[in-house]
């Protein structure tokens, strides 16, 4: 029998990605959806249609049939007794209270930052730090909850942490310097104006760099005595917004403790592909990592559909002459797929496999 799930914040950009990612899912069935008071009481198709009859569907493909006629509820109308899991696509400002309300009784998987930096809350990337999921039991005990909150990282952190993990494990990562070229969609529907981004690069994204530094160390840390000990890595980053619709590209320099070169890096990523923990899960890609030796890759238009948006692509891997030991590379990660709702669904699959759901 499928687990019954609800999507809250279902009419927004991330909520719509959840709708698509859960369409015909073999393990999860969407039985309840919720949004703001403005949308409540309407059928989903009507809730995303404006007064001019324009349907604001921002995800590729058609709106799944299962959701069109489903009634949108308010947060208070959600019936927790008939649910196994909540997917939260609520904006971070409102998420704290809403996710707390539901986590008292149910597991909550969230794309918001509301709980990311709490001591008893892991920031999970399925396939990278699965062992930190055990902290969810500590969280339940600490807060006297029946459920828990498991947030995803910031979408810029996702690709960086995914590519650093194999290097850290095998060669020891000491220092990381990253510059991001982030897609427009990462700012949400109204986050970036057309006039501001056209023929332009925005060299600053508020609060982004602090999130990446903090989250990367936590994700790559170790769970010890009921707490996460941050990885001993110094991270410096510059986050920019570029005129690309979907997909974040990042230029990364890594200083390692042991000697490394591009061939060794390729072998390391190939080995991780063969033993990645999420292999075979419904939302997992065939290849977790794609490694290119073509110097013109990765490119957003060419990489964003690889693995259904769940593969992290690595290219331009070179020895870095600034360090005694180190490499530089460029990565591509889909901010709306692996870095958001579809990544949250993969996380739910991983936690279900661990009997956490």
UniProtKB/TrEMBL annotation:
EC number(s) recorded for this UniProt protein: 1.2.1.11
What is this protein's record name?
A: aspartate-semialdehyde dehydrogenase
Q: Taxonomy-wise, where does this protein's organism fall, top ranks first? A: Archaea, Nitrososphaerota, environmental samples
Which family would the database say this protein is a member of? Answer: Belongs to the aspartate-semialdehyde dehydrogenase family.
Q: Which UniProt keywords apply?
A: Amino-acid biosynthesis, Methionine biosynthesis, NADP, Oxidoreductase, Threonine biosynthesis
What GO molecular function annotation could you give as one example from this UniProt entry?
A: NAD binding
Gene of origin? asd
SUPFAM superfamilies according to UniProt: Glyceraldehyde-3-phosphate dehydrogenase-like, C-terminal domain, NAD(P)-binding Rossmann-fold domains
Give the pathway: Amino-acid biosynthesis; L-methionine biosynthesis via de novo pathway; L-homoserine from L-aspartate: step 2/3; Amino-acid biosynthesis; L-threonine biosynthesis; L-threonine from L-aspartate: step 2/5
Q: What does the entry give for GO biological process?
A: lysine biosynthetic process via diaminopimelate; methionine biosynthetic process; threonine biosynthetic process
Q: Where are the catalytic residues?
A: 155, 248
SMART domains named in the record: Semialdhyde_dh (SM00859)
Coiled-coil regions listed in the entry = none
Start and end residues of each Semialdehyde dehydrogenase NAD-binding domain: 4-136
